[in-house]
């Protein structure tokens, strides 16, 4: 059960998000447009989680590293699952956007 929860919330081995960004990762912020406009990570893409399945074309390269984020990590975990189920190979749950922002220095 613990391993399932770790997997859902993206816990486990430490991920170097700054290194991922330096190697071409994109940040997909899955909060609502209003939440995104109130503050977001520079150069991130806003695709609300409830519209993600219909907007996968906005993330063309299925092998490019993708970091999902939201307000707390719940929606970004769902987004990670959606992306993985659609063939995206390198998807990371970055959790809350403000915490991720501090980790990547943007």
UniProtKB/TrEMBL annotation:
Q: Which CDD domains match?
A: RHOD
Q: Which InterPro entries match?
A: GlpE_sulfurtransferase, Rhodanese-like_dom, Rhodanese-like_dom_sf
SUPFAM superfamilies, alphabetized: Rhodanese/Cell cycle control phosphatase
Domain (Rhodanese) ranges? 21-105
What is the official name of this protein in its record? Rhodanese-like domain-containing protein
